[in-house]
Amino acid sequence: MSDDDQAYGTADPTAPVTRRELERAVRNLNMSDVDLRDALLQLAARVVTLTDELTRRLDGVEPQPAPPNTPATAATSTVEDAVANHLGDTLAQIRAADISGGQRVSLDASGENKYEVASVGPPCAELIHICHARCCKLTFALSTADLDEGVIRWDYGQPYLIKQRASDSTCVHNDPDTHFCTVHEYRPRVCRKYDCSTDERIWIDFANRIPAPTPANPTREAEKKGGPVFNLMERVRARAVAVHIEMEAISESFGDREPQRGPAPKKR
Fold first, then answer.
1. Is 212 within 8 Å of 202 (Cβ atoms)?
2. Is residue 156 domain-resident?
3. Neighbours of 251 (CB within 10 A)
4. Are both 125 and 38 inside the same structural domain?
């Protein structure tokens, strides 16, 4: 095909879609899901707050609403004023309950730059022949920076959890023979900050190098035991920031990085 038969920005309808284009579209759909879910949580918070306020007034616990155009005070507030004053707290509690029940779309909400994070933990190269990189079976969420970089793969069915292979429930970037990470330079923040030495899922006795039995799903096993304790309100705030960063990253990205030429449109 000559240059005369090509045009900028066109593509054959049967041309394959790049992974970059596909993931950008999926990320946008996922954020739409997050946005819709939060709208439902806001509606639920308003209903709960309104119901509580009306119940208090009907039970005679609260004073009756003030006449129209009367300045609202602590003693004579309208239903609308009371709902507005308590809505924020109710919404925060509902969002915390939503997070504690699990997320349809997960994101690493730390806000840290993974390349500026100091790596911690034991000398993996010396221990990997014993533990067989058991940490690579753990499940965790990627950050917007990981998604933009496009190296670390994520599970399309469980966005944005690290992608694992079915054969051994291990991260897809782990070498099945040597157990070493094949994208170590690009590894996520969670991998850089993780210290297995105190994790009972990895070691029975770290000092004596005695590994723990390997459960089918170490992440689920940790959940059954209660897992780590989190401040839910802090997680709500951190997640809100992470979602905002993800939405901005998608809106400021482009499907094509460079000019692309394709077939010229046929004349009618």
1. yes
2. yes
3. 9
4. no
User: Is residue 64 in some structural domain?
Assistant: yes
Determine, yes or no, domain membership for 57: yes
Dump pLDDT digits (tens) for 33-70. 999 999 999 999 999 999 998 888 887 765 555 455 55
237 belongs to a structural domain: yes
Q: Tell me: do 30 and 99 sit in the same domain.
A: yes
Q: Taking the CB of residue 161, how many other CB atoms lie within 10 A of it?
A: 18
Q: Is the domain of 97 the same as that of 157?
A: no
Q: Are residues 159 and 207 in the same domain?
A: yes
| 90/257: higher pLDDT | 90
Rounded to an integer, what distance in angstroms lies between the CA atom of residue 4 and that of residue 109?
49
Question: What is the pTM (predicted TM-score) of this model?
Answer: 0.79
Q: What is the pLDDT of residues 187-237, one digit of tens each?
A: 999 999 999 999 999 999 999 999 998 765 655 444 444 445 568 888 899
- Identify whether the C-beta of residue 259 lies closer than 8 Å to the C-beta of residue 8: yes
Which DSSP string corresponds to 82-114?
HHHHHHHHHHHHHHHHHHHT--SS--------G
Q: By residue range, what is the domain housing residue 168?
A: 114-228
* Residues ≥6 apart with Cβ < 8 Å to 189: 108, 110, 112, 113, 114, 117, 143
